[in-house]
Design goal:
heterodimer, A: 512 residues, alpha/beta, 6-stranded parallel β-sheet, 6-stranded antiparallel β-barrel, B: 147 residues, mainly alpha, 72% helix, 0% strand
Chain lengths: 512, 147
């Protein structure tokens, strides 16, 4: 099963605490008049307050938050603290991601005890008056890294819940990595994660592996003796149903493309790896993918079979499944972070500045000479960046829609391997959010840019790129040097949400 | 007659009329659901010092707010007690007024309103239904209520 980020819900359990007075009396913490002081009033009044709490919580929860039935607990002014109550609070605890308490005076010690007993993430409702700061400080004093979150508005609670959901998505991410040599080193993205254990420890993300030769062997129909790399073993080789899907996709893509410069035969050959990878993701319960680029290229098997993995990455990202070039596991997780935060389909690629010196842009990659001349007139020409890889998709602006696109080929000489083309010039002035983790996973760079154009739509090979301006190119570059090359991006400004998440994950934030 | 006395008379009159409605309900040898709903509605409106014309909503929270606004318009003293109460519970004056009504209903009709049920009361009909069901649980009411 492929568990997409959009399938992951945060299970939130409201807990309605209430205190009841058993006698009529007044004093330093009991005031009111008439029947308000009589036994029986508190039971009904607490229920009214709980209903307001539940209604407020429901009102601020986004569609990805699963509100569980509320639990009710509390005490009388006998100051009772029964084990039976704690048993009630343990209901479905394993499936609960966050507890939100409503409390009032004389109940705070129960929340602190809950934290000590169970260690579960919790918040106190902002309408619980002074209990929010009281309880949060008390819990943090006992355990400074306890997952307790204080907010003074329901909007703040909503943001915490959304960030916790992203955290859950990262912990539910299982990345399938096709390997040729070692499983931990990329020969081109050496800035990928340098320790899977450290990433699992911090984010909960898991890693699964498949040998590239075994994967490529699966891209043809099964033979009785088994595949050459796994003789006699049962493997998920290409089936008639797979080919039906490949042909359906080829028809759909050719039919919908505005410009086509690839043959149907080559498109079919590029869609077979996509279907094979997706089948493997499903079989291995993974929801992210990467495969090496130069070291798989040099196998010459891609050349023989006439495909690249570019279209696989595009189509997976389009569906909200992170997938990165060049065995860049870091980029897969960066994409997943943005997907979970925004609900949008990402793009990734070589991310580099275009320094403008003496009237000319430096660097050999990115825009063509002609485009550079036009860009030299741009008001932000001294702060231009580009992101380049042949893996755009059709749903970056809106995951529910497919925008206009082209289909071209990757290999110049033999014209094989279909790649998607998207014209970023259509999105000038759109704000984008970029991110990437540091190779050790301890930092996150959070960037914001504005699209100023694009290029490579009419070109083949790995030429698609988006051009964007940043606030300060040099500052952005020096900060990027701490995290690496392949940044991931989505449309829209999610920088504040990313910061909140980063704090929750204990990451050092590098903002540009 | 000064204002204080006028207010006192209004309160006594409202209490008297709502008590009459409660007595009317309790005096029935055979209580139909329709009669009960109508009489309970009158009981609530009298307690809230509202007439049919002023009761422009069926929503309990809105009716409570209308009643509060009317009381505040007559005299600040009429809502002062509710303000005092809210500082202890953390709830609003309207919430306190609603809870006091629930307490009065429990007392006047000798029923126990289940906690979660009271939380789900949104309209006059919801409250009427809740009280009717609570009466069905009482031996003293069982032989009187319509099936």
């Amino acid at each position: 099963m492929i568990l997409k980020a959009s399938d992951v819900k945060l299970n939130v359990r409201p807990v309605c605490l209430g205190a009841e007075h058993l006698f009529y009396y007044e004093g330093p913490c009991r005031f009111g008049k008439g029947e308000v002081l009589e036994p029986g009033y508190d039971r009904l009044a607490n229920e009214q307050l709980h209903q307001v709490f539940l209604s407020d919580l429901k009102g601020c929860a986004s569609e990805n938050i699963n509100l569980l039935p509320p639990l009710r607990a509390g005490r009388t002014d006998d100051w009772d603290n029964k084990e039976e109550m704690w048993e009630t609070l343990k209901e479905d605890m394993q499936d609960t991601d966050l507890y939100i308490f409503w409390a009032n005076i004389a109940l705070d010690d129960l929340i602190v005890e809950f934290a000590g007993r169970f260690g579960k993430p919790l918040m106190v409702a902002p309408t619980s008056n002074f209990s929010v700061t009281t309880d949060t400080a008390a819990i943090l004093a006992k355990k400074p890294d306890y997952p307790v979150y204080a907010e003074c508005t329901w909007k703040g609670v909503s943001k915490v819940m959304d960030a916790l959901r992203v955290k859950k998505v990262l912990a539910s991410t299982r990345i399938l990595l096709a390997t040729r040599f070692g499983s931990t080193t990329s020969y081109s993205s050496v800035d990928s994660f340098n320790s899977y254990d450290a990433i699992t420890e911090r984010f909960g993300t898991r890693f699964r592996f498949v040998n590239i030769h075994e994967l490529i062997d699966q891209m043809s129909p099964a033979v009785p003796e088994g595949n050459p790399t796994t003789p006699g073993r049962k493997t998920p080789d290409l089936t008639d149903e797979d080919m039906e899907e490949v042909n359906r996709l080829a028809d759909e893509m050719l039919g919908g493309a505005k410009d086509v410069d690839v043959t149907r035969e080559h498109l079919v050959k590029t869609l077979i790896p996509y279907v094979t990878v997706k089948k493997n993701l499903d079989l291995k319960d993974c929801n992210g993918f990467s495969v090496p680029c130069p070291d798989v290229c040099s196998l010459r098997r891609l050349h023989k079979e006439q495909f690249t993995f570019c279209l696989t990455h595009s189509l997976l990202m389009e569906q909200g499944i992170p997938s990165a070039c060049e065995f860049d596991v870091n980029s897969v997780l960066s994409q997943q972070t943005l997907i979970a935060l925004s609900g949008k389909s990402p793009y990734m690629g070589n991310t580099s500045p275009l320094p403008f010196i003496d009237g000319e842009f430096m660097g050999m990659w990115g825009p063509t000479e002609e485009n550079r001349k036009a860009l030299a007139e741009h008001k932000d020409r001294e702060n231009i960046y580009y992101m380049q890889h042949s893996v755009p998709n059709r749903s970056m602006r809106d995951p529910q829609k497919k925008e206009e696109y082209g289909l071209r080929h990757f290999a110049y000489d033999n014209k094989y391997a279909a790649v998607l083309r998207y014209d970023f010039n259509r999105d000038i002035d759109q704000v984008i959010t970029l991110c990437r983790y540091s190779p050790d996973g301890s930092k996150i760079m959070i960037g914001k840019g504005t699209i100023v154009g694009g290029g490579g739509y009419e070109l083949n090979n790995c030429n698609t790129h988006v051009l964007f301006s940043v606030e300060d190119q040099e500052d952005f570059f020096h900060k990027q040097a701490l995290v690496g090359n392949h940044m991931a991006m989505v449309y829209g400004d999610y920088t504040k949400e990313l910061e909140r998440l980063a704090k929750m994950l204990g990451l050092e934030i590098i903002k540009a | 007659m000064d204002q204080k006395e006028r207010i006192r008379e209004m309160l006594i009159n409202a209490q008297k009329k709502s008590a009459e409605q409660a007595a009317l309900i309790k005096g029935q040898a055979y209580l139909t659901r329709e009669f009960f709903h109508k009489s309970l509605r009158n009981y609530i409106l009298y307690r809230f010092m509202l007439d049919e014309k002023e009761c422009t909503s069926e929503n309990m929270d809105e009716i409570t707010e209308i009643s509060l606004a009317k009381s505040a318009g007559i005299s600040k003293e009429l809502v002062q007690d509710l303000d005092i109460a809210k500082t202890c519970s953390g709830g609003s004056s309207a919430m306190t007024k609603k809870v006091l009504l629930l307490l009065a209903v429990q007392r006047d009709f000798d029923v126990y309103l289940p906690t979660e049920g009271t939380g789900n009361v949104r309209t006059l009909s919801d409250l009427s239904e809740l009280v009717w069901n609570a009466m069905r649980e009482r031996e003293s009411w069982k032989n009187v209520l319509e099936d």
